[in-house]
Amino acid sequence: IRLANLNGDKDWESGSNGTSPAPEYTGPKLFKEPSFKSNKFIIHNALSRCCLAGKVNEAQKNKIVEEMEKSPANHFLILFRDSSCQFRGVYTMNPDSQELIRLAGVGPRTIGSTQVESIYKYSSDRKQFSAIPSKTMGMSVDAFTIPSHLWHGGGGAGGGGSRRASITKKAVISK
Fold this sequence. Notes:
Elements (H helix, E strand, L loop, with lengths): L1 H15 L4 H4 L15 H12 L6 H13 L5 E5 L6 E8 L4 E7 L4 E3 L5 E6 L4 E5 L10 E3 L3 H4 L9 H5 L9
Parallel strand pairs: 1-7
Antiparallel strand pairs: 1-2, 2-3, 3-4, 5-6, 5-7
């Protein structure tokens, strides 16, 4: 046993002291973590501290957080009614079609990325959203608004993708 430990320690030392493996490591190029980065924690904070803060919103917040936990998505977006940042729903983005699909809350079932009016980033420090002067939906976007006519359209915003999106809708769970 003692010999095995010595050999194990010796092998471990030669690998961990940086002499042989260090030159082989080329740095971040091999490490592709950003593509799997999730804003779930940021959205959870935004819901808890800003959008749905307080006891009165707790049930709604918990239901939405539960839907987010069940979702395989790693990027979530909050839909606001307008620039006053009034919470309406949580969406996920289909990376292939760039279509936004409602996960919870109210709003059109699906929204094309071209229908997005304004985009926002949440600041955990300031506990508030800031408008981003851009139209590009990327991983840094935490919330968005749509033009007011889409709110009055009665579901017309769903377009051709509404049938496909309805598959992702969850049935009401009885307790």
